[in-house]
Amino acid sequence: MGRRLSEAGFVAHVADTTARYAMMNTLAPGELTYRPSSVGPVYLYADPIGCGCVYMGSPTAYNTLLASAPTTARKTRKPIEGVPEIPAMAAENRRDTAAWDWSAWSPNADPGPNQPRHVIGGYW
Fold it and tell me: How would you class 88 by CB atoms within 10 Å of its CB: exposed for 0-12, middle for 13-18, buried for 19 or more?
């Protein structure tokens, strides 16, 4: 799925800090959802096993992903695996009680070289 997301315009953000790792774990793994931001919805796909990252995409990237579905899936209106319909994403967004912290994903939120970085399974 990561390749399809990247081809659609999603960008992988590695969960390489404790804050990012915690934020990634608030998302359902392997399922696309969104969170509101100041510029509109940002679509998120957590991949804790494959890359230890969160793919983030704009509405344009989301529409590109939907358009890349096989023709038969578009004709039958069956959702792409891991890509729920917008109402299901909205329900998941309302059900999530943790506030999404966009500042954890800012480039200036990275720790300095002397600060520990969280990695899956330990610290370095």
Answer: middle
Q: Measuring CA to CA, which residue among 49, 74, 75 is closest to residue 63? A: 74
Cα–Cα distance, 63 to 101 (Å, whole number): 25
Q: Tell how strand 118-119 and strand 122-123 pair up.
A: antiparallel
Where would I find the beta strands (DSSP E) of the chain? 11-14, 32-37, 40-47, 53-57, 118-119, 122-123
Question: d(Cα 60, Cα 76) in Å, to the nearest integer?
Answer: 22
9, 58 in Cβ contact below 8 A?
yes
Q: What is the tally of helices (H) and strands (E) in the chain?
A: 5, 6
- How is the chain split into domains, by residue range? 2-92
pTM: 0.73
CA distance 100 to 13: 15
Report residue 122's pLDDT band, with 50, 70 and 90 as the boundaries: very low
**pLDDT score recorded for residue 121:** 47
